[in-house]
């Protein structure tokens, strides 16, 4: 049985992919978490779908581990001059007091990850999928 609701390789929309990966993790979480997704459904998946799924799953898992008694998780994305920016913000602890591991999945798909505190409390991570010009080289 798949651990997401849609085949990532068949998914064209980042919003649908994020919801498909996140929903099962929220269902399994022991406490209620309010999820808000603000991603234009026309925004495409910005990198290798399987790698993007792994990265989202890892970051959502880290956010949920910061909210054992529940809380809020906001996931938003937009296009910027830097590329596609995906941000996950939660009401867990500050980033100084949490594990802010750099997922290997980010490096594998060429994404940049930046952690920061939210002004209203909690922490956030911004993933930037950089624009690529010309051809890309894959490392085996």
- Secondary structure tally, helices: 3
| Gross geometry | globular
Determine the mean pLDDT. Answer: 87
Order of the strands making up the biggest sheet: 1-2-3-5-4
Over the alpha carbons, how many angstroms does the gyration radius reach?
A: 15 Å
CATH superfamily: Histidine kinase-like ATPase, C-terminal domain
Whole-number total of structural domains: 1
Query: What fraction, in percent, of the residue positions are helical?
Result: 25-40%
Count the beta strands: 5
Query: Mind telling me which CATH architecture this is?
Result: 2-Layer Sandwich
Main beta sheet: 5 strands, mixed
* Oligomer type: single chain
CATH fold node name: Heat Shock Protein 90
CATH C-level name: Alpha Beta
Low-confidence stretches: 133-140
**Residue fraction in strands:** 25-35%
Order of helices and strands: HEHEEHEE
Instruction: Compute the separation of the termini in Å.
Output: 28 Å
Category by helix and strand content: alpha+beta
Summarize the model shown.
26% of the residues lie in helices and 28% in strands. The chain has 140 residues and is α+β, with helices and mostly antiparallel strands.
Describe this structure in words.
It is a single chain. With 140 residues, this protein is an alpha+beta fold. The protein has one domain (8-130): Heat Shock Protein 90, CATH 3.30.565.10. The chain is built from three helices and five strands; from the N terminus they run αβαββαββ. It has helices spanning 14-28, 49-65, 104-108, and strands at 33-38, 71-80, 83-90, 111-117, 123-130. A hairpin with a 5-residue loop joins β4 (111-117) and β5 (123-130). α1 packs parallel to α2. It is globular, with a radius of gyration of 15 Å. It starts with 13 loop residues before the first helix and ends in a 10-residue tail after the last strand.
